[in-house]
Structures are given as C-alpha cells and as structure tokens.
What does this fold into?
Amino acid sequence: MFKHILIPTDGSDLSRKAILYGVQLAKESGAKVTGLTVIEPYRPPAMDAVLVPIDEGDYEERSRVLWETASEQVKMAADAAGVPCETIREVHDQPYRAIIDAAQRSAAISSSWPRMGGGGSRPCCSAAKRQRC
It folds into this structure.
C-alpha cells in the first residue's frame, strides 16, 4: 500500500493524534515515516509592535526546542510501533508549501496531518507521486 508516510507536526495535541494515526498506518503498510516540523523564519519586530521583542538568538533557541519536542513525539511513536523513522526541520514562511516540497523531495505518497476546523486527524494524500523507494 504505502511505503513512505510524511507526518507534519507542530507538537500540538492535534498533531500528536495525527502522529499516532500516521505511525499506525505505516505499521500496517510496512512503510517508513518522516516527521516534519516547519518553523517560520525570524522576523524582527516592527517599531510600532506592542509585543515583547525577541532577538534572533532567542527565536532560534525556541524554534530548536519546539522541533526537538515535536520530533521526539514522532520518534517515540515510531519506536513503539517498530516503524523506521526520520525527522526533518524546515524553515519556511509558508508551512503548507514546505510540506508539499518535503513530500516531493522524499517521494512520500501519503500525509497524515490534522485538518483545521476540528474532526481530528484524517489521512490526506499529498500531491507528490511515488517516484522511488
């Protein structure tokens, strides 16, 4: 059925549900999984911003911690299910585009990710077609 499943995650509760679903699908299909976390690039605060400014170093550190936490969730679920796994981090200002690009690069043919608007996680096929594996 599937040979490679891409699981975008941001560490949220909804993403954890998608991870469990995606890993279970991979186990049943004999597939491997790739966990993807997309971090938006640092943007310096505007002069009229009311927000507490954060410098680039702090932003990078917080982004790294977010990625490590989200990646660990994927690794733990995959290890528990006996599914091969890798994790990647992308920096992109359009997360949806980074997910599509990662799917095309890795030739993942299925993506398990949370759908906005509730209803939990549902499988979604990516636009990428199976090229190799």
In short: The longest strand covers residues 32-39.
